[in-house]
Inverse folding.
């Protein structure tokens, strides 16, 4: 890798440097990037090699700290590189790439020890590590602080047991950033710790979950006496909740994109997909269809404006970025089902059928979007949880009554067991 640049290097000098390197080292893109139905080591190998080439050239982690393998430059330098590389083949890692570069590592950069970051971040930038999140559980989804997977100190390290749910892309990742309970004697928000869990470690089992659209990118994990070291702790022991809020802010679109080293996804300029559906159905002249397309266009632009504002507020600091990000998350959870419904209404039968032997076009995409349209209103926090965060944390409205937030979590679970099963000795 080249020596890190000074952060004051001007953008035009950097653009010239990036353009020359890109043209000498990257191949022109053959078309829009595609994602395989299932990632395999063989499919990942060329992507990892391409990431390594960019890292060796000094263009990975452009806005990440130089002491951890990045360039230590600015988000503007990152945008310049992406602009110059837009027409070229760059690495694609599917959802694991998003969780690694946009969520997990940016979170760690703000809380993990320098030793931890020196060990893992350069390997991420070189394409050797992909990370996913392990936090939701069968009994802890919206109430994320109620996780019951636990790590217990043992023989100078930790012993992890429990289970996680809905982990996107875990089947082909290298590490899971895992939230577990390490103290049952304190209220639930205060006894949590984050760990780095190698997915190939003894005692880790990953099961893929078949989804409604016949894909299986979501996974469930089981931990059976998984051995971890103190070096695997991310942040402070029992200090996991503030880290969780930081991670959720990034997942929901808040915070600065500088933290991820990437730029925001460009806004949809016009709903060309809906126009294509209307054209295929012969309904482009239908006034109602034209009104639906216009409504979708307005919604797309409103969502883009809100997300830009959320990112700007997160970058400026001051307000709780996780709660501010709830505006964008709520809007996505609300607009996505509406847009999916519009697509089927516009396309009719033409949107619900297509030639299975042909590449998936607007029609197939519309069906898949409809099947998955409720996911944004649930995954990463339900719409109801976003409304609670906005009302309580941003608008200052009274909190909902809580019986468990100030009590030791072990007592809370004993009460739950008593309410569900009755006192010992009772007969049903």
């Amino acid at each position: 890798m080249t020596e890190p640049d000074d952060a004051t290097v001007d953008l035009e000098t950097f653009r010239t440097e990036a353009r020359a390197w890109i043209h000498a080292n990257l191949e022109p893109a053959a078309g829009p990037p595609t994602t395989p139905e299932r990632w395999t080591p063989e499919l990942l190998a060329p992507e990892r090699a391409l990431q390594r080439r960019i890292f060796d050239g000094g263009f990975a982690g452009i806005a990440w700290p130089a002491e951890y393998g990045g360039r230590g430059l600015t988000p503007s330098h990152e945008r310049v590189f992406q602009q110059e590389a837009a027409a070229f083949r760059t690495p694609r890692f599917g959802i694991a790439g998003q969780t690694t570069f946009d969520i997990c590592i940016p979170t760690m950069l703000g809380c993990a020890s320098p030793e931890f970051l020196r060990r893992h971040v350069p390997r991420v930038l070189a394409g050797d590590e992909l990370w996913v999140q392990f936090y939701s559980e069968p009994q802890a989804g919206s109430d994320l602080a109620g996780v019951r997977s636990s790590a217990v100190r043992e023989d100078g390290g930790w012993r992890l047991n429990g289970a996680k749910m809905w982990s996107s892309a875990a089947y082909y990742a290298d590490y899971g950033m895992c939230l577990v309970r390490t103290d049952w004697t304190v209220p639930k928000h205060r006894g949590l710790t984050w760990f780095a869990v190698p997915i190939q470690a003894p005692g880790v089992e990953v099961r893929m979950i078949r989804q409604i659209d016949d894909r299986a990118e979501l996974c469930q994990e089981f931990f059976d006496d998984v051995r971890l070291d103190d070096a695997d702790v991310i942040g402070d022991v029992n200090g996991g909740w503030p880290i969780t809020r930081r991670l959720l802010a990034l997942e929901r679109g808040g915070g600065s994109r500088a933290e991820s080293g990437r730029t925001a996804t460009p806004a949809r300029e016009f709903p060309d997909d809906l126009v294509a559906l209307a054209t295929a159905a012969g309904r482009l002249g239908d006034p109602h269809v034209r009104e639906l397309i216009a409504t979708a266009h307005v919604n797309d632009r409103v969502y883009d404006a809100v997300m830009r504002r959320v990112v700007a507020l997160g970058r400026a600091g001051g307000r709780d970025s996780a709660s501010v990000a709830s505006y964008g998350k709520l809007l996505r959870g609300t607009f996505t089902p509406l847009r999916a419904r519009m697509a089927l209404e516009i396309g009719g039968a033409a949107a619900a059928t297509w030639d299975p032997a042909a590449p998936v076009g607007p029609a197939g995409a519309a069906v898949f979007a409809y099947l998955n349209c409720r996911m944004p209103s649930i995954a990463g926090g339900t719409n109801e949880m976003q409304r609670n965060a906005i009302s309580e944390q941003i608008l200052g409205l009274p909190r909902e009554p809580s019986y468990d937030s100030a009590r030791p979590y072990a007592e809370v679970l004993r009460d739950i067991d008593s309410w569900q099963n009755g006192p010992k000795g009772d007969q049903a």
